[in-house]
Amino acid sequence: MLFWRDKIMNKKYPFLTKLKLSLFVLFAGFTLQVNASLSSTSTHQVKARIVAKAATAEQIQQNAKQKSAKVKANQSETTNSGKSGSQKVNQVYRQWVGTRYRLGGTSTAGIDCSAFVQKTMSGAFNVHLPRSTAEQRYSGHSISKSDLQPGDLVFFRKNNHVGVYIGGGKFVHASTSQGVTTSSLSESYWARTYTQSRRVL
Question: How far, in Å, CA of 200 to CA of 153, rounded?
Answer without folding.
Answer: 8
